[in-house]
Write a structure and sequence with these properties.
By secondary structure, this protein is an alpha/beta fold. It contains 9 helices and 7 strands, in the order βαβαβαβαβαβααβαα. The longest helix is centred in the last third of the chain and has 20 residues, at 222-241.
C-alpha cells in the first residue's frame, strides 16, 4: 500500500513536559507543520502538551504556539503520557514524543506509514538505526538502551535497538495494554506489554538532535540515571508477571481527564 493510498485517521500528539520553555513553542510549531505536510492524518490533529508541574513558562509557550495544555501535577513521565492519552475525545492514533525538541516531527510519516498499512501495531523511532547529533545521546543512555534491548529479547523475544520516545500506536490498543508504570519505565513497558500480547513491534530509523534547552531529567545526573535504569528493569519484570487488566488509577482517569 502506498502512502498516498493510506486512508486518513484522527490523531493526538502527546508531549509530556517538565520545564521545557526553551523548546516547547518551536516544537509545537514543527509538529503542526509536519502534520500539515504528511497527508496521512485527518484534520484537525490535536497537540496535547502535558505540563507535569513546570515552574517556568512551559505551559504559556505551548499555548501560544497552538497546543492544548493539560496540567498533570502528579509527577512522573508515564503518568504525564497516560494523562495525555486519556484527555479529550477519542482519536485513532496516539503519537508520543519528548518536549525537548530532540525528536524530528518532519519524520512522522516514517513512523505512521507501517502502522497505517497494518504492518505494525507499535512503531518506534530508532536513533541507533538512524543518526544522532554528537552529544545528543550520552554514553550511559546508549549503554542503558543496549541493556534494556537485551532484556526485552531474552524475556519477550522482541528485537529492538532503541527505547526511543518518538513512537506511534493506535489508542485503543495502547489502552488495552493496561500500562502501570508511571515513571521512566513507561516507554519500555509499552514494548514489553505489546510483545507479551503478540502485537507487532517495528522500528524505523530516525534522526535525533541535541535538546534545544534545559537539562535532561534522566541523563543530567548519575543518581537520576541509576533511578531511571532501575525503573526500566522493574517495568520489564513486572510486565512479565502482571495479569491485571488495568490499574485503579487508570480506571479513575477514564471517568474524566484532567482539566486543560
Amino acid at each position: 500500500m502506498t502512502m498516498n493510498a493510506t486512508p486518513q485517521v484522527t490523531a493526538a500528539v502527546v508531549i509530556p513536559c517538565l520545564n521545557e520553555e526553551a523548546s516547547i513553542g518551536d516544537l509545537v510549531r514543527e509538529v503542526r507543520e509536519a502534520v500539515e505536510n504528511s497527508g496521512l492524518l485527518a484534520d484537525p490533529v490535536v497537540i496535547r502538551v502535558v505540563d507535569n508541574g513546570s515552574t517556568d513558562e512551559t505551559a504559556n509557550r505551548a499555548a501560544e504556539a497552538g497546543a492544548q495544555v493539560i496540567r498533570e501535577t502528579r509527577r512522573g513521565y508515564g503518568r504525564a503520557c497516560l494523562t495525555g492519552v486519556l484527555a479529550g475525545p477519542d482519536v485513532d492514533v496516539i503519537i508520543l514524543m519528548d518536549g525537548d525538541r530532540s525528536d524530528q516531527p518532519a519524520e512522522l510519516p516514517l513512523l505512521l506509514a507501517p502502522l497505517l498499512a497494518g504492518e505494525a501495531d507499535l512503531v518506534i523511532g530508532s536513533r541507533l538505526l538512524g543518526s544522532y547529533e554528537p552529544g545528543s545521546l550520552l554514553p550511559q543512555q546508549i549503554f542503558g538502551n543496549r541493556v534494556a534491548a537485551v532484556f526485552l529479547r531474552i524475556v519477550y523475544g522482541v528485537r529492538v535497538t532503541d527505547i526511543g520516545p518518538f513512537r506511534v500506536m493506535r489508542r485503543e490498543r495502547l489502552l488495552a495494554l493496561g500500562m502501570r508504570e508511571m515513571t521512566y519505565g513507561w516507554s519500555i513497558e509499552m514494548i514489553a506489554r505489546a510483545a507479551k500480547g503478540g502485537l507487532k513491534v517495528r522500528e524505523v530509523p530516525v534522526s535525533y538532535r541535541k535538546r534545544a534547552g534545559g537539562v535532561s531529567k534522566v541523563s543530567g545526573n548519575l543518581r537520576a540515571s541509576l533511578k531511571a535504569g532501575y525503573r526500566i528493569l522493574l517495568a520489564i519484570v513486572r510486565a512479565r508477571r502482571d495479569s491485571l487488566p488495568l490499574p485503579d488509577d487508570l480506571r479513575e482517569w477514564q471517568r474524566g481527564a484532567p482539566n486543560a
